[in-house]
């Protein structure tokens, strides 16, 4: 700190807390780094003029105390990797929480790797019944060939059979599509894959003993003339005399 000419070289007088070391021609003042690590949390550094503390990677010198090291919150100061979906600060570092369909990079643990469709294995990373895998965020969705519908309801998109109308009574699978068979009293809609009621009255598909035909969904019944009643034994589709 203060040098005096000497023979040979020079000697030093040091500030409080420092010791002169004149074992070589370059007299230096040795501070407390050699003793209690200079009070530094991490590293104590010094030269012949001064001493200072430095911190390991991921830490900064505290603004309150130059000896103290404080964790850098990489999440707060946005120095984390942009592919880190949810940044999680840790002491001296940070890691990431990844959304469904993404994995934490095993080497850095500081980004999320996704792209299930491009790099994934069919049947493993994405559903084997996914005809055309499209990377989503999160996960993926599927585009399906005609005759199939997309089921992305469970984050595990796939293409399932066909969209069966609830009014298709008995669905019969065909190559790439399906057809419907209908219960008695119904027939296939001329243009749509569903079953519709047959109007027996309009088509005169009723018994001669049915005095006034009344159409019902899935069947029909009759109004009977005076002194006649519906015949339960004929499914209420004819009138019998009392
Ligand atoms: Ca940190
Ligand atoms: Ca009917």
UniProtKB/TrEMBL annotation:
GO terms for cellular component: extracellular region; membrane. Residues 1-30, 71-109, 113-160, 165-196, 197-240 form the EGF-like calcium-binding domain. Residues 1-30, 32-70, 74-113, 116-160, 167-196, 200-240 form the EGF-like domain. Transmembrane segments: none annotated. Keywords: Disulfide bond, EGF-like domain, Endocytosis, Glycoprotein, Membrane, Receptor, Repeat, Secreted, Signal, Transmembrane, Transmembrane helix. It comes from the Eukaryota. GO terms for molecular function: calcium ion binding. It is found in: Membrane; Secreted. It is a single-pass type I membrane protein. InterPro entries: cEGF (IPR026823), ECM_structural_protein (IPR050751), EGF (IPR000742), EGF-like_Ca-bd_dom (IPR001881), EGF-type_Asp/Asn_hydroxyl_site (IPR000152), Growth_fac_rcpt_cys_sf (IPR009030), NOTCH1_EGF-like (IPR049883). PROSITE patterns: ASX_HYDROXYL (PS00010). SMART domains: EGF (SM00181), EGF_CA (SM00179). GO terms for biological process: endocytosis. PANTHER family: EGF-LIKE AND EMI DOMAIN-CONTAINING PROTEIN 1 (PTHR24034:SF200), EGF-LIKE DOMAIN-CONTAINING PROTEIN (PTHR24034). This is EGF-like domain-containing protein.
